[in-house]
Amino acid sequence: MTFKRILEPGRNCWRLEAAERVAFLIDGQDYFSALNSGLRQARETVFLLSWDIYSSLCLVPAESEDGVESCPPLRDLLNGLAVRQPNLRVFMLNWDYSLLLGRGRERLIRYKLDWSTHERVRFRLDGFCPLGAAHHEKVVVIDDGLAFVGGIDPARGRWDTSAHRVDDPRRCAADGLGGRPHHDVQMMVSGPVAGALGELARERWQRATGEDIEVDEPPVGRPADFPWLEGITPELTDVQVAISRTRPQYETQAEVREIERLYLDSIAAAQQSIYIENQYLTVDAIAAVLAERLQAQDGPQVVIVLPRNTDGWLSQQSLDQMRIRILQNIRQADVHDRLGVYYADIPGLGLDQSIRLHSKLMIIDDRFVHIGSSNLNNRSMGLDTECDLAIEMTPEEAATQPGIRALRNRLLAEHLDTTPDLVDAAIRHHGGLRHGIEALRGEGRSLRPLEPELPPYEEGWLTRQEICDPERPIEPEALVQELFPAAAEPQSSSAVTPRRLAVGAALVALVALGLAWRFTALGEWLEPERMRAAVESVARLPLAPLWLVLIFVVASLLMVPVTALIVATVLVFGSLTGFVYALTGTLLSAGMGYALGVWLGGRGRWPIAHDRIEAIAQRITRNGVMAVATVRIVPVAPFAVINLVAGSVRIRWRDYLLGTVIGMGPGIAALAFFTDRLRASLRNPDGATLLTLAASALVLLGVGWGLNHWVKRVRGTRDLTDR
């Protein structure tokens, strides 16, 4: 059996650095406990890169059965460390998330983790990424000598034990949420590789804030100065660790697709076994190389563990459907019966409480391991920022340090409710990875075949990669054309007319206004106090509601962010009246923008898209309502631009209006409730205001459930939860 190196700096990894020690931390309990210990040993710097974060997260919740004392919430922990360590500086960088993924995230997060914390505890929201992209890395670096990389954010819904008990009270004690059982993996490394990850974190901070953070010499850190954590046995020592990245092309940042290349190269090199755990599976290129290895006469056995279903109707109707197609293609290639696709199951959990498998891990031939933040979806290959670690060993090295094989055995022992030794013995005795798993599967907690649980594949616009799982930055023109397909061939006319020049100038002015509100002194007028004062002056006028609605219409045409108008309206008029005025103003603004778009949309009048916008359909198909609702939620373009485009392509008025209500109504209601209750709690922070806040949350949950039910009925889609 020939051996060929997989890892190659400049091709499938950024750096290949030495690690003195490596440990694999399975599930949130082990990771957060190690993170708590590591933070308490920090002396100089802590870098934390995250997709989501929760300031009140308890890394070590109280365990009533043995009386272990819990640690303070994350914010208090970091504040206390900064007070006790005079040289310690903490830098937290969290993605400046989109409205689509705002549900469940902590409000006022910058106030809680930056404005109200110690001066050396700093927090920023990072929006340095293209339209539709996200910062998805989960990296912690302590004193440039210890680092954690994997799939676990310091956020709600991540803490869990490997038992994954449905009724474990510690999950709720950790974050106040509880949620369904959660499985994930993190890698802990010490040595020069941690210093290199510190460089990566400093680069992210500089791009996001423009600030340079000095680093002591040598730049790779001082690994000998940071002790390995007590109680954690390293599974590998003195190995080379690769750092692989995904970076989208954005401004001066060049595109980097090292992670995609690493997946393709490592799968192609597999000879005996491929073990994958991942949240998604939607990448055609990875499916193709898996199919190629399955078709090979001497190819590996392939085991893929995925969640039974993902969270949320949008993900279930898009990414879950896309993986059905991918699995069908891979299954057709399995001519030698070497493929197993499973989900982790514990009897009694039910579909809604099934284990949320969130890990991003791949093990090849017991000598190669890949752990990080990247999902096996297209956006992790080229759109979002990602950071993964990989370790490769020769067959001889793997024989003397069997830590990678031991990790695979531990993971399978957890899923199959057995021991790592029995897993290892079954794989050896039954002739390979998949056959060993089949021999160990039982009726209780176990791995179960996923494909029989899946509904038939249904193709629709939500399953189009360009819309819900893009691999490169989204061009608004292309997305509009995907959402509203052309009903006729593009026109060839490109004559420049005075009409076109005038309309083009107007559109350029709109774009300039939108940028001005965000990046110039005009943005000062959007400060809450100024907006509130302006609305209060309107409230004193005769016929104040009519004036307010008129202001909504004019302001939206001038590209004023509609969210700022909504907040100011609720602050002045209260939650119910403010909601009614804000929704009315928003709908009338949408109608005026639609009418203007209809006027612009005639042949020869729309000077964008290289004349292709003229051929966009006069109406959309049965997904019209859902298309409008989605673009109201997804951060595709400003509110006013969406209005103009919708009118220009002649979306049915009923679909447009109903889609706008569905897409924006719940958000306006949520913002109105939140703003009103926040104002009340600041004025009178007593139990009554907290109770009304909780009651409003219950109402919003009911609205959300009803909206989800309506969506499923309109789409006529067979939803997994109904099964």
TrEMBL record:
SUPFAM superfamilies: Phospholipase D/nuclease (SSF56024). It comes from the Bacteria. It catalyses: a 1,2-diacyl-sn-glycero-3-phosphocholine + H2O = a 1,2-diacyl-sn-glycero-3-phosphate + choline + H(+). Residues 131-158, 353-380 form the PLD phosphodiesterase domain. PROSITE patterns: PLD. GO terms for molecular function: phospholipase D activity. Keywords: Hydrolase, Lipid metabolism, Membrane, Repeat, Transmembrane, Transmembrane helix. One of its GO terms (cellular component) is plasma membrane. The keyword Methyltransferase does not apply. The chain crosses the membrane at residues 501-526, 546-573, 579-602, 656-675, 687-707. PANTHER family: PHOSPHOLIPASE, PHOSPHOLIPASE D. This is PLD phosphodiesterase domain-containing protein.
